Each structure stands twice: as structure tokens, then as C-alpha cells.
Amino acid sequence: MTGELQTIWVYLAASPLLSLTLTLLAYIAGQWLHEKSGQNPLVNPVLLAVLALVALLTVTDTDYASYFQGAQFVHFLLGPATVALAIPLYRQVHRVKDSAIAIIVAVICGSLTAVTTAVAIAWALGASEQTILSMAPKSATTPVAMGIAEQLGGLPSLTAAAVILTGIVGAMAGSSLLTLVQIRDSRARGLAMGVASHGIGTARALQMNEVAGAFSGLAMGLNALATAVLVPVLLRLFW
Amino acid sequence: MLNFFALILACQLAGEVFVVATKVPLPGPVIGMVILFLGLLLKGGVPDGLQKLGAGLLSQLSLLFVPAGVGVMLHAELVGTELLPIAVSLVVSTLVTLVVTGWVMQRLSTRAGQ
């Protein structure tokens, strides 16, 4: 870069506007590719945007803290959006009431499955104890999962990475997998997405239909609670 | 619209305060969701403006995970040292959880419906 360009770059890189704009553009590009692919779930807009931004930050040698100065405005909206999940939930309240017991049993079974399979597979493949503990709460929503990992002696930052990747895997594979195993009930599909892959799964479930979205948001909240209660108990029993 | 945005933020804030005060192992926004849900039950309906705002916030929910996703790159090195166990555990566990949860729910809710 010439001196002048360098000056402009340094100025822009220091302002939150650039990383905020790039975050939106990367996501829009991801969505465009998703549409172009005939809405193939494997062409996931979140994954594409993340990969593009990571490549860009690496090439320009920008650290995450300066990127986050701009991206935090997008990140902040996660809180209000989570609160807003109450709206589809309220609109589907009659369906939730009708299957309350099924919901509770399914969430507990799903939560147990998520924790035990994650721990067992990581252990069988020779992961370190710290890694195993960090993987245990991976299906819960990020702040809860990080809190559990910290409490157990895992690495909260590794847990945060595992949580995000779990969400992306669930969003990419969920719909086709559930169809493959003949799970067609929107309530069951939504609940599965929310338990297995928290908010990112819920974002995908909302695209299926409102019933799936409502059940997924509910499942995300219930699974956070179930994971927080179950993980410490399970590990005390088996570790 | 502004009123409803303030309402959503107030629910989140109340949720955060509740979590700090009671040390319940849940994120503030999830408690905020419960508070708004209870409010809607009391009111017996979703006001138009709130419906629009909520639909707007939720229509691009995936986008909101991008900054955290980029944060994953900070730990690329960490994942790299144990790539195989982490990747296999993450993918297989997520897929099995999807099937088990969906299957149990479908079985139980169909039975309840009969």
C-alpha cells in the first residue's frame, strides 16, 4: 500500500463503522450465495460470513478486539432478539400447553444425549480432560455453556467456539436429517433444533415455520436450564 | 415502535437483574423472554407494533451470531491441537441429539394427540 492508502486504512480500521459494514456485507453475500444455491442448508450464510471475515482479518492483520468495536452493535441485538422469542412462543401457547409433558421429557432426553455423547466421543478419541469438560455443555446457549465450563474446570473460550460450531452444524444438517428419519411434526423439528443447537438452530427453525420457531426458542431456554443442572451432576457420577 | 423497543430492553434488563440477584444458571435475555411471555399472557394478545418489531428482530437472527462466530478464530489454534476428537464429538453429538430429541417429541406428542 502507498503511504496515503495506508493512512486511510489505519483511520478506517480504527472506526467501528468499517467492521460493522463489513459484517453486514459479508452476511448479505452469504445470503445471496444461499439463495443462488437453491437455499441449500449446507451453504450456510453464518458460516460463509464468518469464514470471509476471518480471512479478511487475517490478511489485514486486524485483531478481534478492534473488529468487535464495530461488530458489537450487531452482537448486542442478540439479547433483545432472544427476548422477542416470547412473541412466537405466545402465539403458539395452545400447542405448548397441549404437549407440555412431551416437551419436558424430550428436552431432558435431548440434553442428556447431547452431554453424554459429546463427553463419551471426545474421551474415546483421546481428548484431554480440559477439552472433554469444555465440550460437555456445547449444546447450551453461549453464556450458560461458558459458565458451566468455567465451573467444571474446562476452558470457557474453547466452549464458546464449540457452542458456535455446534449451532452451525445443527443449522446446516438439522432440516435434512430430521426429514431423513421421518420427523415431520413441526413441534418435534423445532424442539430438536433448539435443544441440539440453541439460538443458531432457532434462527433456522424460524425459517421453517412459526411453530418450529416457537418450539425451538422454548427448547433453547429449557435446555440451558437442563444442561446447567445435568452436567455437574453427570460428571460427578461418572468422572 | 420506540415504546416497544424500550419494552423489550426493559424485559432484558429485568432479566439480567433477576439473574444477578438469584444466581439462577440462565442468561438474562432468556429470563427476559419469560418476563415478556408472562406479560403477553396477562395482556392476552400481542400489540401490532410489538409483533412488527419482534418479526424484524427475528427475521435476521442468524446475522446476530456472526461476530461471535468470528471470535471462534481466536481459538483456532486451540482446536487445532485436538482437531479430531473435537470435530467428531461436536458433529456426531449434535446429529444424535437432533434425532433423539425430535424422535422422543414426535412419539410422545403423537400419542398425546390420539
How are the SSEs placed, and which strands pair?
The complex is a heterodimer of chains A (239) and B (114).
Chain A (H helix, E strand, L loop, with lengths): L2 H12 L1 H21 L8 H15 L4 H13 L1 H7 L1 H6 L1 H6 L1 H25 L4 H7 L6 H11 L3 H25 L5 H23 L1 H29 L1
Helix pairs in contact in A: 2-3, 2-4, 8-9, 8-12, 8-13, 10-11, 10-13, 11-12, 12-13
Chain B lengths: L1 H21 L5 H16 L4 H12 L6 H6 L4 H6 L1 H31 L1
User: What does the overall shape of chain B look like?
Assistant: extended
- Determine the number of helices of chain A (DSSP H or I, runs of at least 4 residues): 13
Strand content of chain B: under 5%
Unreliable stretches of chain A (pLDDT < 50, length at least 5) are none
Q: Quick check: average pLDDT of chain A?
A: 89
- Span from first to last CA of chain A? 55 Å
Number of domains of chain B: 2
Protein structure class of chain A: mainly alpha
Largest sheet of chain B: none
> What series of H and E elements makes up the topology of chain A?
HHHHHHHHHHHHH
Q: Please describe the biggest sheet of chain A, giving its number of strands, its sense, and whether it closes into a barrel.
A: none
Helix and strand string of chain B, N-terminal first? HHHHHH
Keywords (chain B): Cell membrane, Membrane, Transmembrane, Transmembrane helix
Subcellular location (chain B): Cell membrane
Protein name (chain B): CidA/LrgA family protein
Membrane topology (chain B): Multi-pass membrane protein
Protein model, in words:
The complex is a heterodimer of chains A (239) and B (114). Helices cover 84% and strands 0% of the residues of chain A. Chain A is an all-alpha fold and 239 residues long. Chain A folds into two domains: 3-76, no CATH class; 88-238, no CATH class. Chain A is globular, with a radius of gyration of 20 Å. Chain B is mostly helical. Chain B has two domains: 1-59; 67-114, no CATH class. Chain B contains six helices and no strands. In chain B, helix 1 (2-22) crosses helix 2. The longest helix of chain B has 31 residues, at 83-113. The mean pLDDT of chain B is 88. The interface between A and B is large, with 113 and 75 residues.
